[in-house]
Write a structure and sequence with these properties.
Elements: E1 2-3, H1 7-20, E2 24-27, E3 43-46, E4 53-57, E5 62-65, H2 71-79, E6 83-84, H3 105-111, H4 118-121, H5 124-127, E7 128-134, E8 140-144, H6 156-160, E9 169-176, E10 178-179, E11 183-190, H7 194-206, E12 213-218, E13 232-240, H8 242-255, E14 260-262, H9 265-272, E15 283-288, H10 291-301, E16 306-309, E17 314-319, H11 326-334, E18 338-343, H12 346-351, H13 360-373
Parallel strand pairs: 1-3, 2-3
Antiparallel strand pairs: 4-5, 5-9, 6-10, 7-8, 7-9, 11-13, 11-14, 12-13, 15-17, 15-18, 16-17
Length: 388
Amino acid sequence: MISALTEADVIDAVRAARAMNRTLEITGAGTKRAYGRPMFCDDVLNVSTLSGIVKYEAAELLLTVLPGTPVAEITALLESKNQRLGFEPADWGPLLGTPIGNATIGGVLSADVNGAAAIRYGRARDSLLGVRAVNGMGEAYKAGGKVVKNVTGFDLPKLICGALGTLGVLTEVTLRVYPKPAQSVSIIVRDVNVEDGFALLRRVWQSPLEATALAYIPASLPLAQLGYVGEGAALIRLEGAHEPLKEKIAALLAIAPAAQQIEASSFFEAISSGAIFAEQSCDLWRISVPPSEAAGIVRHMGSPLFAADWAGRFIWIGLEAGGNGAELRALCECAGGQATLVKADKETRQRVAPFSPESPARRAVTKAVKAAFDPQNIFNPGRMWKAV
């Protein structure tokens, strides 16, 4: 294993791998190594030691850090100034078999892991303003800047989000942060079926309430802290200063008279991270579909193991272990969405493409981008698709 303490170390490692025609597995804390296709690389480049706060400009709502910085450290720093990461990164560690609280910011960005509040503040790619990285030629480069609108051409930081380290090695990231709301309330609407629950969440999403979490769970996922849920439960989080928050709650009650306040703030994280499925012996899929199509897909699949986030925009669905997910993928494709296999054993992830197959046109673009950033296919080869 090669450990990088500085950007210069990363450059040296990449140039050496290029010269010897060796491949590199890019890893940090390793909380998402079980996500994506299994890899067989010649060496491991560990960047978890490339850690620390570079610059925190609280008044400007800007934070620059090294990629190996733990998310927990960043969260604690921001909380000291009553600020937060808007995309509320979810911790997939427990779901994928690693301890909670170990995720690094580089891993979160590379996997594009977003939490419940991203429905209000935008996803990780919207908060990532600038990066420093090393490409497959062993060249350091900088992209983006420190303002929200900083380029007129191709926005490279957004491209890196979700690429799982296949395009390069992050060495520094600049993030936009947000003020932390003064108060937060969790609200439940019990005993609503899938269709009615999703319809309610969509209505709230389309309202001026600016909800920071909109989730749904079925009766098949009983949780003691929620109490009785009946056929299912819609969960809503509202935030703000005291008086505006009171007005939001009153407006919500006009939409959903049966809504009740509960103590369930941590449950939104459990849904976003998939942690509520950590002990289930199933393959876990995460689908992304138009919210209006979500209820129909859930009903068609008939799995009792599911939970929805973002008013149905993202849904976890547990299916029988070892399956290929073909039916689910076909439904999602017809709805204009996609299905990703997040949790399965190594054999299944080797046999079943974790990410939706690409159309020929998109495949050509993917190959061209990969060739531009990493022409020798050094970084995480095969992590997303067999040939890339």
